[in-house]
Design a protein that fits this description.
The complex is a heterodimer of chains A (66) and B (273).
Chain A (H helix, E strand, L loop, with lengths): L1 E7 L9 H5 L5 E4 L2 E4 L10 H5 L5 E7 L2
Antiparallel strand pairs in A: 1-4, 2-3
Chain B lengths: L3 H6 L15 H15 L6 E5 L14 E4 L5 H11 L4 E7 H7 L1 H10 L3 E7 L34 H8 L3 E6 L3 H13 L4 E6 L3 H7 L5 H10 L1 E3 H4 L4 H4 L3 E8 L5 H11 L5
Helix pairs in contact in B: 2-7, 4-5, 5-6
Classes of the chains: A alpha+beta (66), B alpha/beta (273).
The structure holds thiamine diphosphate and iron/sulfur cluster (SF4) (3 copies).
Chain lengths: 66, 273
């Protein structure tokens, strides 16, 4: 079965805060100018963070599960 | 490593890009990649052309046949490419300064010809690259380095300008409404004829700072709260629409496309392509 997992690439993150501000579930936080996933269980995998991140530093990745 | 989409469609060796924190050029470029994949354009049949500006730097990151041309002339180069091989999908990525100031004449004539090119304007209402001079889309009264007392010019409405000049597809979306930006881009890419999408974008570094609009989050929040769909706008007064961003498809009609008409001329003259 295929599932999606929230992934970040913090070296690409410029700390703009857009992902955190528009996340409908307040999953994300900016700490020292970098994105942090603070509440992964609340994530509804809507992908809005990925769509709006100007720096491709957060996205939903397909992962395979047994 | 970035997402699979970014790995497929961008030159990851050139990433991360140089745009400022929060600049919407990055999300609009990603939206275009998504739209290209959703429509299924083939890499070998797609050419992306830009002019000069922060926005125009996008072509350096896109994993396609791309050409970074001179300021304002992206449509002139794109017209040549399309005429040389009408089977190509030709996409122009440009800024408001590039397309409506120095390139304004190329814009109206590409519209008038209805040539099969998709033109995406990353419209942040300022010259970002050169430090914040006002552009033809800077709202009246707003500030730029060249308008320290406020801009007294009237601003162009790019989709209305394009539609009245003869473009057969004209739309506006926002950087906040990136999902809509992708679906409208898909329609524009499938459109036969000249299509223009004005993407209301943000330049937090120059436009935002000089006009005290706050950071990137505040600027996108403002877009969210001040956008009206074109259907709703039709029932609103000019006063009510003041300062609002009207979004959606303004024009979508079918008319003869330039390279097809040109082919008929070639045949009349007894030539072959
Ligand atoms: C012939 C010529 N004139 C002027 C310039 C200087 N110049 C470079 S980019 C630019 C404006 C870019 O503004 P815009 O297209 O809105 O793009 P942005 O940087 O805001 O994304 C200007 C005037 C130039 N490079 N070439
Ligand atoms: S996918 Fe949606 S819910 Fe999950 S972090 Fe991103 S914006 Fe928030
Ligand atoms: S939107 Fe992207 S660059 Fe901005 S803070 Fe979030 S992950 Fe970082
Ligand atoms: S100056 Fe403005 S347009 Fe240029 S990269 Fe920075 S935010 Fe973007």
């Amino acid at each position: 079965m295929s599932m999606k997992k929230l992934v970040t690439e913090v070296t690409w993150c410029k700390g703009c805060g857009i992902c955190a501000a528009f996340c409908p579930r307040h999953v994300l936080e900016i700490v020292n100018d970098k994105v942090v996933i603070k509440d992964e269980v609340s994530c509804i995998k809507c992908g809005q963070c990925e769509l709006r991140c100007p720096d491709y530093a957060i996205w939903l990745q397909e992962v395979d599960h047994e | 490593m970035p997402s699979e989409l970014v790995k497929r469609e961008m030159r990851t060796e050139n990433l991360p890009h140089i745009w400022c924190p929060g600049c919407s050029h990055g999300s609009v470029m990603r939206a275009l990649c998504q739209a290209i994949e959703n429509v299924g354009l083939e890499r070998k049949n797609t050419v992306i052309v830009s002019g000069i500006g922060c926005s125009s730097r996008a072509v350096g990151y896109l994993n396609f046949d791309t050409i970074h041309t001179t300021h304002g002339r992206a449509l002139a180069f794109a017209t040549g490419i399309k005429l040389a091989n009408p089977d190509l999908h030709v996409i122009v990525l440009t800024g408001d300064g590039d397309i409506s100031a120095i390139g304004g004449n190329h814009l109206i004539h590409a519209c008038r010809r209805n040539i099969g090119i998709t033109c995406i304007v990353m419209n942040n209402t300022i010259y970002g690259m050169t430090g914040g001079q006002y552009s033809p889309t800077t709202p009246t009264g707003d500030f730029g380095t060249t308008a320290p007392y406020g801009n007294i010019d009237k601003d162009f409405d790019i989709p209305l300008l394009a539609a009245s000049a003869g473009a057969t597809f004209a739309a506006r979306t926002t950087a906040y409404g990136i999902a809509q930006t992708i679906t409208v881009m898909e329609k524009a890419l499938k459109h036969k004829g000249f299509s223009v999408i004005d993407v209301a974008s943000i330049c937090p570094s120059y436009y935002g700072r000089r006009n005290k609009k706050g950071d990137a989050v505040k600027m996108l929040q403002w877009q969210k709260e001040n956008s009206v769909p074109v259907k709703m706008a039709q029932n609103m007064t000019a006063e009510e629409l003041k300062g609002m961003i009207v979004t959606g498809i303004f024009k979508d009609v079918e008319e003869p496309e330039y390279t097809e008409e040109y082919q008929k001329i070639i045949e009349k003259a007894g030539g072959k392509r």
